[in-house]
Here is the input.
Amino acid sequence: MASRKKWEFPGSPMPLFDRLVDMNPEVTEEPILLLNYNKQQLIESVIREASNLFNTRCTIPYKEYEDQQPSVLTYGVPELYGLFDSSYADPSRTEDVLKLCRFMANALRIFECRLRNIVVEMRQYDQSTQTAHFIVNADLQMGKIIEAISFPVEIDQIQELGKSNK
Here is the structure.
């Protein structure tokens, strides 16, 4: 295992998509082209990418997901709640929670190359709002530097379906 070091340099390169997105659309002229993130911006970028990944549904059914090779078709996690194809995963059942967390950790391993030693745990599931709360623990790696990070991720099934939770 690589030794853990403190951040020895002030930043890291930004992912391509982050460079293409205008973070301040109201500003018409950028004073300096932003190509590197500082440590906090890097962590925020990883959290944003993890949230996007977890809130994206792939086209592969739940029961077939594990047997698939990583590709653009497996980006995200499979549909999990209330599907008509019997691929229903019940967050109150331990084996379904463990499988979902394994799918999520695997998706991060494949699609978020800045993280290592990933563990995803479900902390809470609110049946009334169909909101699942997860915690991701991982090592953030940029170059030779590795630092342990932990962050929450929320998946809101009702909002995802385009419904209001009010």
User: Anything to note?
Assistant: The radius of gyration is 18 Å. Residues 94-111 form the longest helix (18 residues). Strands lie at 12-13, 36-37, 115-126, 131-142, 145-156. The chain is about 30% helix and 25% strand.
